[in-house]
Amino acid sequence: MTQPTQPTQPSAGVLPGVGFALAAGLLWGLVFVTPLLLPGYPAALLSVARYLAFGLIALPLAMLDWRELARLTRADWLEALRLALVGNLLYYLLLAAAIQRAGGALPTTIIGTLPVVIAIVSNLRGGGLGPGARALPWRALVPSLLLIALGIALVNHAELATLGQGAGATGVAHDPGARARYALGAALAVGAVVCWTWYPIRNADWLRRHPGRSPRAWATAQGVATLPLAALGLGGLWGWQLVAPGAFEMPLGPDPLRFVALMLALGLLASWLGTLCWNEASQRLPTTLAGQLIVFETLAALAYVFALRARWPEPVVVLGILLLVAGVAWAVRVAAPRVPAEPAH
User: Fold this and answer.
1) Model confidence band, residue 188 (pLDDT cutoffs 50, 70, 90)
2) Quick one: 194 exposed, middle or buried, by C-beta within 10 A (0-12, 13-18, 19+)?
3) Which residues, at least 6 apart from 78, have a Cβ–Cβ distance to it below 8 Å?
4) Rounded CA gap, 28 and 296, in Å?
5) In contact, 31 and 266? CB cutoff 8 Å
6) Does the reported pTM lie above 0.90?
7) 287 within 8 A of 200, measured Cβ to Cβ
8) Which residues contact 179 (CB under 8 A, 6 or more apart)?
9) Are 196 and 290 in contact (CB under 8 A)?
10) How far apart are CA 36 and CA 281, in angstroms?
């Protein structure tokens, strides 16, 4: 006779993984308001300075993890360099440039498509590596994707309407140069989406191939790998500014105290601590689910942008945010691995 099926409950690793992803999103949301707080600074300087700070912060942290870092092979360090170049420097260069050209809301909502894009790409490639990274059934995944996509569409609609009203008031609607600037900002944000579709999937692949490695040490390794890249970028930018017409006041610009404070904050909180939280989440969650949880970054960024504007979001934006949260909750329910419940004593 067939034994009765044991009741199931969610795997214990899912909820902590979601918590780490939420923490990463709250920290990463800070990067969207920094270009608005430093409007006169070139996007390239914001990118290299942020990751120069990240690399300098990572150096003393590397002393704590030197045994783990010593286990990394040449191939591991090359992977850390690739992740640093694409997921750190290039991503933030494109994002900061997009925000400076199109404002905070439009790039934020374009980046908000990441949960859908990553989920689709990850599922098409089989969900990632390892037994916990299985591909999810499309039939089960579609409702979550639809809720997230609808929520993003509502937020986009409201924000673009706000931008349109502002454009009409300032004459932007009749200014071809300004329209081109907004379009360039949107295109740069799409480029940032491409970078950050590649990065979390590639990063999760490495973590799942090395389940015994420390996520903290891997975050620190990426910071150490970023340091020479950022230093080379700063040197090249400084050399360019020496010969460029209307050169920027290198290296600290017109507001040095604010610039240094924000770069250190981004280097420690958004770069190192955010990457650490994301690595912890990536080890606990399927890539398809982890990709959708990047929605927390969008929600945090929108909250910070509206706080900077000192006004509440419109009702349609609130509805869109609620749909985003509902889509994430659905994804957690669908993607949570099921394990037999402990028998009652």
Assistant:
1) very high
2) middle
3) none
4) 9
5) yes
6) no
7) yes
8) 172, 173
9) no
10) 29
